[in-house]
Amino acid sequence: MTPLSLRSRLLILIVIVLAAVLLPLGVLSAKRTLEEVDELSDGRLAQAARTLEVLVGRIGVDQLRSQRDARLLVPSVSNHPQELTVQGRTFESEVGFQVFDHDGHLLLGTENLAGLPNTHAADGAFEDVETGHHEWRVFTLIMESENITIRAGERYDSRHEITRALWIEHGLPTLLGLPLLAILVGWAIRRGLGPLEALAGALARREPGSREPIHLSDAPTELQPVLTALNDQISRLESALDRERRFSADVAHELRTPLASTMINLEDAMASAQPDEATRAALEAARACLVSLARRTEQLLALARLEVGAASGPRSRVDLGELALEVIDELAPLVGKGSVEMSVRELPEHLFVEGYGVALGALLRNLLENAFRHVPQGGHVELAIGSVDGMARIEVVDDGPGIPPDRRAAMFTRFQRGVDTHGEGYGLGLSIVQRAAELHGASIELLDRHGGSGLRVVVTLPAA
Amino acid sequence: MHIILVEDDAQLGDAIRRALERLAYTISWYRDGNEALSALRDHDADLVLLDLGLPGRDGMDVLSEARRLRVTTPVIVMSARDALDSRIQVLDAGADDYLIKPFHLDELAARIRSLARRVRGAAVNKLEAGALSLDLGTFDVVWHGQKVELTRREFALLQALMERAGRIVRRESLETSLYGPDSAMSTSALEVLVHSLRRKLSHEAIQTVRGFGYMIPREPL
Question: Residues A307, A312, A317, CA angle at the centre, nearest 5°?
Answer without folding.
Answer: 100
